[in-house]
Amino acid sequence: MSEAERKPNLERQAAFLIATTRRASLATRLAGSEQAGVQAAFPYISLVLLAPDARGLPFLLLSDLSEHAKNLQADPALALLLEQTADKPDPLAEPRLTFLGEASQVIDAKAAEPLREAFVAAHPRSEPWARFTDFKPYRLNCRNLHFVAGFGRIAWLSPDRVIQHLSLASDAGASDAGASDAGNGG
Fold this sequence. Notes:
- The longest helix is centred in the last third of the chain and has 25 residues, at 159-183.
- Strands 1-2-3-6-5-4 form a six-stranded antiparallel β-barrel.
- The chain has five helices and seven strands.
- The protein is α+β, with helices and mostly antiparallel strands.
- It is globular.
């Protein structure tokens, strides 16, 4: 299979991973911490929760008190690793996607409220804290996507082309979730 034939399939797989992943590893540049004695610019990685916005694009809800939010305020550059390998016997054979881009805090209260609602819908256990005033939504501006579909199936993908597949992947993810819920008595 040629590269031109292979890419649309990888784009669909990447879109499905975006549509169905609800937690990720976020890498930012450390703004520095005198208290911890850590110099600025070191990579800093943390676990974050994702939720889809109305277009199906993932966003973050971060506390102003967190190190990663402080880092993004100082430098919006980030990498975000999406994967679903926790219960897999061979995690390196499973798909994973790295976003490279920037985050921007949603300042407008009218724009932030639907994102908070979407976040709570995706993560019902977040309801007690998601409405705290220090939690702010962050939109992700993706510059590049690096997709590893499994051993030897690796490609840099166009964010625009993957986003084209996202609404279809979101619909498929919702159908899969509904079928799973029905099978579990819910």
